[in-house]
Amino acid sequence: MQGNELLETIAGQAASPAVAAVMRHAARHPIANPAEPALAEITADGAKAATAFGARLSGFDRVRLFNSPVKRCGQTADCIAQGAARAGLAVELVGAREEIGIDYILDLAEAGRLTGLHGDRFVRLWVEEKIPTTVIRPARELVMRQTDFVAERLRDPNAGGRRLDLHVSHDWNIIVLRELLLQVRHEAAGWLTFLDGVVYTTEGSDLRATYRQQTTGSLVS
Q1: SS3 for 40?
Q2: How far apart, in whole angstroms, are the C-alpha atoms of residue 127 and residue 124?
Q3: pLDDT value for 160
Q4: Mean pLDDT of the chain
Q5: What is the value of pTM for the model shown?
Q6: Where are the domains of the chain?
C-alpha cells in the first residue's frame, strides 16, 4: 500500500514525544499542462489511499495537518484527517502554508518547458544550480526554508499528549530534502512515491531527519 514505508518510519520514532513528516500528496491525475501543474487533483484511488493512511496512524494522541496551497495537497490532508479521526485521534487541520508549497518556482511556464526537455534530470540540474534562479530558487534555499518551518512547528508546546505533524507537499520538495539532508539521490533510490516522505524528530536541542533506514546527525535549524 502506498505510504507503508512512511508509516513504518514514523512508527520507528516511538521514543520521540513529537514527530513531523514532510510527505508527498496522494496519487493525482496526470498534469496536462506542465505550465499549470497546480490544476491536477487527486484521484479516487488516491483519496482512498490517503484515508487509509490516516486510519493506520497509531501511537499518537493528536495529529496536526499542514498542506501546500496546491489543491491536491489540501485534498490529501482532508482525507488523512478523516482516516485519523476514525482511528480515534484528535485531528487539527491547520491548512495551507507557502513554506511547503511551490512558490519557489518563479516561472512555471519555463520550469514546465525545461521539465519537458530534461525529464527527471531537471532535478539533478536544479540541485547542481544549473537552472537559472529566475526560473526556480536554489534547492538548498528550499531545504533550509522547509526544515526551519517544520522544526519551528515541531518545537511548539506539546500539551495534550504525543503529537504528529504531517506536512503534505510535493515530490520535488521532498526529493531535495532527501538528497541534501540524507544523501539519497533519486537516480539511485527511485522517484519519490505518493504518500512517502522525510521524518523529523528532536532530541533536546538536536534536530534529526530520517528517510526509511537512513538518519542524519544533528541538523542546525
Answers
A1: coil
A2: 5
A3: 77
A4: 93
A5: 0.95
A6: 4-100+140-215
